[in-house]
Amino acid sequence: MGVYSSPREKWEAQDSLEELASLARTAGAVVLESVVQFKEKRDSRFCIGKGKIIELSELCQKEGINLVIFDEPLFPSQVRNIEDAIDQKVIDRNQLILDIFARRARSKEGKLQVELAQLNYLLPRLGGKGLYLSQLGGGIGTRGPGETKLEFDRRKIKNRIAKIRRQIQRVVIFREQQRKRRESRLIPLASLVGYTNAGKTTLFNLLTNSDAPTSHDLFNTLDPLIRRLRLLNGQLCLLSDTVGFIRKLPPELIAAFRATLEEVKKADLLINVIDISDPNFLEQHKEVNKVLESLPVTHRPIINVLNKIDLIPTTMLSVQGRMIDNPIYLSAFTGEGKDALLRRIAALLSERRVAVTFEIPPADGKLRSLLHREGRVLREDSRLENMLVEAEVPKAIARKYRKYLVGSEK
Ligand SMILES: Nc1nc2c(ncn2[C@@H]2O[C@H](COP(=O)(O)OP(=O)(O)OP(=O)(O)O)[C@@H](O)[C@H]2O)c(=O)[nH]1
Ligand SMILES: [Mg+2]
Fold this sequence. Notes:
Blueprint: E1 2-4, H1 10-26, E2 36-38, H2 50-63, E3 67-70, H3 76-86, E4 89-92, H4 93-104, H5 108-122, H6 154-184, E5 189-194, H7 200-208, E6 225-230, E7 236-241, H8 251-256, H9 258-266, E8 269-275, H10 281-294, E9 302-307, H11 314-321, E10 328-329, H12 338-350, E11 353-360, H13 365-374, E12 376-381, E13 387-394, H14 395-400
Parallel strand pairs: 1-2, 3-4, 5-7, 5-8, 8-9, 9-10
Antiparallel strand pairs: 6-7, 11-13, 12-13
Helix pairs in contact: 1-4, 4-5, 5-6
This protein binds guanosine-5'-triphosphate and magnesium ion.
């Protein structure tokens, strides 16, 4: 059930509803009907109009519908009113997304974050049909992470929320330590970002020779993945794959993304994957930019990748490509465009690198292996007692070992 409040928004409402249908199928529902209503002002009791509610009720009876999903966030009282009026279970877009997250989260922190978001969302909504009819509608909206059933007892929920908060705190500290260790290794990090289903994981697999699961489902990836990526000039960087973004993502849900977004915030470089074969790619691109601005990471270098070019004719490509800033045309499927992307990554990362010469005393031999591992060694001379190594290295390394730099580079 979608609602729009000005005639201009009609198309957008229909697109959004189609996306909602994909989300519903991803959660295991069978979509029987889609309805949109034009309503200038949302009804405080039912969100949509009273007449529409009666129509909806009749439609449910006729088609055997046992779950109605609203494309709008509903107040707890609205959920109860609508459920009473149509006598079927009602959830909103946010609950549906949380439900998908609940099934997808794999990491400990991911699971905790999702459960926390669900419980916070459910607490004011207790007493709705979810309580009694959780078996109907495939249980959608009542699943906890790992398929356990959420418990609907106010006191229990409050205790559980407090417990989860403490657990998350511990995991956060642990992750922070891990990240510090990684940062101390000074390898630059590139993060894939983009709308859900844009092909981020497929590209991740292509670039890092991995086989992380990809799927046509929305929100297939939830937990961040990090692998090493070797660029054409031999330089190493880390690449992270993350959760996708989607329109109308409310703040409660953004918290559940936090683990992933931390990686994005720390990235030296963002790779924005855009599905050029999707007719809504521009809106999706805007939505992604909105989330990035809220992080905020917009001052980071960013590479726009137009993915899935194998799906649309070349003539269309050049027209659409003009709408995106300095894009790389790519197919994560066929591999076309991969080298161009690798070159662009290397070029942007090398701006963060300097070419310097170190004079390394024998006692500090491990600096030489560090330069080989993290930098690109251009020349070595070991005829003198101190070894001379000319290399292109991350600026952070040059700074840290300043005392060994030769001549004016100090
Ligand atoms: N034809 C074609 N299909 C692609 C390409 N890249 C990805 N796909 C398909 O698009 C779908 C989504 O790909 P994923 O890599 O799972 O997308 P994602 O961005 O990681 O999606 P989420 O993790 O759900 O946010 C899958 O069915 C892929 O096979 C491409 O270049 N060409
Ligand atoms: Mg993915």
